[in-house]
Amino acid sequence: MAETTLSPRYEIRVLSGTDHAKWACALVTHSSIYSSPVFSPLSRPEEKSQLCHEMFQAALYQMTHQVNSGLSLGIFDTQYQYNYPESISTQGKLYWDPSNQEEATETSLLKEMDFPLLSVALSYDSYYPLDPPKLTSLYNLFSFLPLRNKATDKRDPRPKKEWKATGPKQVLSRGGTVTKQGEEGKGFMKELAWELMRKAKKEGFRGIQIGCMHDYVTRVWERPPKPFEGKVVVRYRIGEEEELKGVVGKEVWGVEITRVWVDLKGGE
Length: 268
Hints:
Distance between the termini: 23 Å
Structural class: alpha+beta
CATH superfamily: Gcn5-related N-acetyltransferase (GNAT)
Strand content: 15-25%
CATH topology: Aminopeptidase
Shape: globular
Helix content: 25-40%
Largest sheet: 7 strands, mixed
CATH class: Alpha Beta
Number of strands: 9
Order of helices and strands: EHHEEHEEHHEHEHEHE
Radius of gyration: 18 Å
Strand order of the largest sheet: 1-2-5-6-7-9-8
CATH architecture: 3-Layer(aba) Sandwich
């Protein structure tokens, strides 16, 4: 894919298949439990390894749906050095063992993510939405998620016709975006975001909608490259919503939640 400033060492590829779905799920899970300003404070240190395995199982459906859409991208390290010789023949492997939850640590789980996928931008065609019953396990783990979605929908002032898809390849719905621990600060998230905009445009989408819980992610999406146009349509802090305050600690009340719309038809 063209128009990237990445070092030749790194390649942007479309994610596909079971392995990529599992790798993406591990990246999202590990980042959420150990690094997220929202999710990490929700558990005590001694609970995190077990919660990491539970979230992986609960979130795998969502990750698989997005990877299978053909609309999710990842950055791969072409010079990745494997931690285990068994990973070489398969060009990457995830070694997480649910039966070893008590001994697992943040560091050991990271080492067992022995694959060259370093960063992901997950998305799907909103005309083919996620199946709510299949999200029950994830929402049971994190009741914050459905409450956040409800609060954001309530605050969105736009008529549905502006963002609701009435057919395929109209509105791209963005899911998680994470970078592997230790690989941050290399501009991967921005590269993936802008490449996804170009890909969606080429495939005929008119817009992209994304929910953000990090200031930098919001900035990247509200300031896309020309001719695209980005706009924050919802912006609030967790502490402004009573239901959200009831399921998270005070330390995250100041986290800002946004919904950004990117118009891919700008300039036409």
